[in-house]
Amino acid sequence: MKRYLIGTVLTAISFSMAASDSPLLDTSRPGGFGIETGLHYTIGATSVLQNYSDKIGGIAAMDVAPGVGTGMGASVEFVIREYLAIGTQFDLMLGNHRYAIAMSAPGIDRQTTLMVRNHYYWADIPIYGSLRLNLADRTKLHLDLGIYFGIGLGGHQKASIYNAYKNSIGQMIVSVSDEKWDYYGSVDDGKMALLNKVSRVDIGLHAGMGLVIREHYSVGAVLHVGCRNLAIPTPVFEPAYRTLQTLFKVGYIF
């Protein structure tokens, strides 16, 4: 299967090169000032990588589900050669994800289930190098690699907590409570959180791939993997909590 996919991609590139008057790797200098600016819209999946199952005793089952992330932003790229550029972006983003944790203890006829919904806003600032390949006339493939910086702006965490247990006559009793906390926090802000507060400052890997068609229209995909542990530990709990995002962008380059 992998050989088939690689062969298909290589064949497509070969036909594109044959149809293009430009070389695959154009080493000439850019025309004009060599500065490209643009606007784009982003949508994708936002989630986190965490180790709650390893750090919290009594977890019987856990499920983490990504949510929809969306936003808008602007880009600036400095073209060094037609095949190479350095770029940065500024995006205002909205993200969501949720998780469910079922907890029980051996020998105790009680179960607690946490249904947690996270909703947050942040500014996203990637800095990257961009390799540009001519696939066809007025069609370029951009391969981007760099780092991103994230700055948390606000958000909240809502939880529904279900407690189920049997009373002295064997009846099942279920109670439900709803709680809400700020998503972002700090060690000394005095605020509470369900499992851990989340740091506002993030940094991680930025990898992207996209097409620019007719010099102005762009479409692509971006992967963000956090390198910094965003979890603010408590005296009894030190989890890991890192960003994981798959985003798709469409835009216009001026």
Rg value: 24 Å
**Biggest sheet statistics:** 8 strands, antiparallel, barrel
What number is the mean pLDDT?
Answer: 86
Q: What fraction, in percent, of the residue positions are helical?
A: under 10%
Strand order of the largest sheet: 1-2-3-4-5-8-9-11
How far apart lie the N and C ends? Answer: 40 Å
Structural class by sheet pairing and helices: mainly beta
- Show unreliable segments: 8-13, 15-19
Q: What percent of residues are in strands?
A: over 45%
Number of helices, counting only DSSP H or I runs of 4 residues or more: 2
Order of helices and strands: HEHEEEEEEEEEE
Shape: elongated
Question: How many domain modules?
Answer: 1
Count of beta strands: 11
What is the topology?
Layout: H1 2-19, E1 35-50, H2 52-55, E2 59-81, E3 84-104, E4 110-136, E5 139-166, E6 172-182, E7 197-198, E8 201-213, E9 217-226, E10 231-232, E11 241-253
Antiparallel strand pairs: 1-2, 1-11, 2-3, 3-4, 4-5, 5-6, 5-8, 7-10, 8-9, 9-11
Give a quick rundown of the structure.
This protein has 254 residues and is mostly beta strands. Helices cover 9% and strands 65% of the residues. The strands form 2 sheets. Strands 1-2-3-4-5-8-9-11 form an 8-stranded antiparallel barrel. Strands 7-10 form a two-stranded antiparallel sheet.
